Amino acid sequence: MSDVSDNGVNPEKDLSASNLPGQRGQGGEEIRVQRGMFGANNGGDTSGYGGLVRSVRLPGPASRPYGGWFDEVADELEGALEEQGLLPGNAIEKTVVDRDELTFHIEREHLVRVARTLRDDPALRFELCTGVSGVHYPNDKGRELHAVYHLRSITHNRVIRLEVSCPDSDPHIPSLFSVYPTNDWHERETYDFFGIVFDGHPALTRIMMPDDWQGFPQRKDYPLGGIPVEYKGAQIPAPDQRRSYS
After folding, report:
1. Sign of dihedral through CA atoms 205, 211, 214, 218?
2. Cα distance between residue 112 and residue 191, in whole Å
3. Cα Rg, the chain, nearest whole Å
C-alpha cells in the first residue's frame, strides 16, 4: 500500500524548511556566495541554474544549554582546563552544536593539552581517536585549512569532534601522535592530500602520492590535470583545460 496521497504528497513526511538537510537560514558564518549550480566563474553556466545564488555558511557558535550530555562534557572539559591554569576561552575558540553533533573548535597551540585532557580526565575518558580528516575552504581567509578529529569515549559511549584551523600561508598544526598513536597514518594521509604539516610527527611523509609529487590533490584549488583525448576525430581537452565548475 502506497504512503503517498493522490496529490503526490507523503502525509507522513514533514515538509517544513527547517527539516530539510543543510538548512541553516541566516545563522552561522558566511564564507562564500556561490552563483549557479556548480559555481562556474570563468564562463557561462551551461547547467541552466545560472541565476541560482546560494550562500555557503559554516555553523556558528552555540549558546547554552547545549542539550543532553553535551553540557556535561563542556563543563568537565572547561573545569579540567581551569585546574591546569588554562583559561577555557583561550583554548576553545567556539563550541558548535549542529545536526545533533558536538564540536569544539580548538586553538592549535593548545590542541595537544586539550586532547590529553579529554583522554585522561575520568569524567571525560575519550580514549579513542578514530582519525583526522582535512578540509579546505579557500574562501575562509586566514583559516583555509581545517583538521577535524573524531573522538570516542568507550567508557561513556559518547562521540565528539575537535576542529582546528590554520592559514594556507602557515599550514602547521601540532601532531596528536603522542596522545593518540593511531593517528600516525591518518596524519600522513592528511599531510599528503591537504598539505597540513603536523609538527612533532615522528615520520611525516607522503603515503599515497610519490615523494616528488607537486601540490596537494584534495585541495579545492588543485588543478584536475589529465591528458587530451581524441574521440571520433574530435579533441576532448584535459579536465583542467575545460570550463571550470568548481
Report:
1. negative
2. 18
3. 22
How many Cα atoms are found within 13 Å in the side-chain-facing hemisphere of 118? 31
117 in helix, strand or coil? helix
The DSSP bridge pattern shows strands 229-231 and 234-236 to be antiparallel
Dihedral (Cα; 202, 204, 208, 212), 10-degree rounding: -140
Cβ atoms < 10 Å from Cβ of 226: 13
Q: What is the mean pLDDT of each run of 10 residues along the chain (246 residues)?
A: 46 44 61 74 64 84 93 97 96 94 97 98 96 93 96 97 96 97 96 97 93 90 70 71 58
All three cell numbers of 76, joined, read 568537565
Residues in CB range of 107: below 8 A, 6 or more apart = 90, 91, 92, 93, 164
> pTM of the entire structure?
0.79
List Cβ neighbours of 57 (8 Å cut-off, separation of 6 or more).
24, 27, 28, 29, 30, 31
DSSP 164: E
Distance between start and end Cα atoms, the chain: 43
